[in-house]
Write a structure and sequence with these properties.
- This protein has one domain (3-178).
- Strands 1-3-2 form a three-stranded antiparallel beta sheet.
- The mean pLDDT is 87.
- By secondary structure, it is α+β, with helices and mostly antiparallel strands.
- It contains six helices and three strands, in the order H-E-H-H-E-H-H-H-E.
- Helices cover 48% and strands 17% of the residues.
Length: 190
């Protein structure tokens, strides 16, 4: 997405919010935390493909850009939290037969290590899906028009194994900001 698009989203959010209302944000960054060589090369290749598909694409940190724009638009009480979403859960050495689907609520109640592994696996799967929808989809949609099938970064077992070994994670920034109760006064100088 371009910086202009981010600015338009923030401006429209401020316009529709009531005075004193809160803007809640969840921004997933393109770069991952704790990347190994394979992941770094894969992300760099994705950035090149995104730039070719749309030269106006902003490849800098989306969370930093959005938070800076929120501050410039006059929002107050900006609070943010960085969350590391795991890229990969432990990769099994052998393929196990499918097991019964267990809900997240029942995994949270279970205090065993198996439940922790199940939660990590589920969160990593959602993180990879979200990353693909945010960043890989623009390249894949373009290549689909050109009749080229481009697999996801995460179809590479070696990449997932490296991400698990490096404890790689997606950088998710969760934030909120309050629209001022009284807008900025616009006065003319005489």
């Amino acid at each position: 997405m371009s910086t202009i698009s981010y600015a338009n989203i923030v401006a429209e959010s401020k316009r529709v919010l009531k005075p004193g209302g809160y803007l809640e944000l969840a921004v997933l960054d393109l770069d991952m935390l704790n990347m190994g060589n394979r992941a770094r090369r894969a992300v760099r290749a994705l950035k090149v493909q995104m730039q070719v598909a749309d030269p106006s694409t902003d490849l800098s940190s989306a969370s930093d850009t959005v938070l800076k724009l929120v501050g410039k638009r006059g929002f107050r009480d900006i609070k943010s939290c960085n969350v590391g979403v795991p890229v990969a859960s432990p990769v099994p050495a052998t393929v196990a037969p499918p097991t019964e689907e267990v809900s997240l609520a029942s995994m949270l109640q279970d205090e065993s290590t198996a439940a922790d592994e199940g939660i990590t696996k589920m969160v990593a799967k959602v993180g990879r899906w979200w990353y693909s929808r945010c960043y890989e989809s623009c390249v894949q949609d373009r290549d689909a028009l050109l009749s080229e099938v481009v697999p996801s970064l995460f179809h590479d077992d070696a990449l997932l194994t490296e991400c698990e070994a490096w404890n790689s994670s997606f950088k998710l920034v969760v934030a909120y900001a309050q629209k001022p109760v009284q807008g900025r006064r616009r006065t003319n100088s005489i």
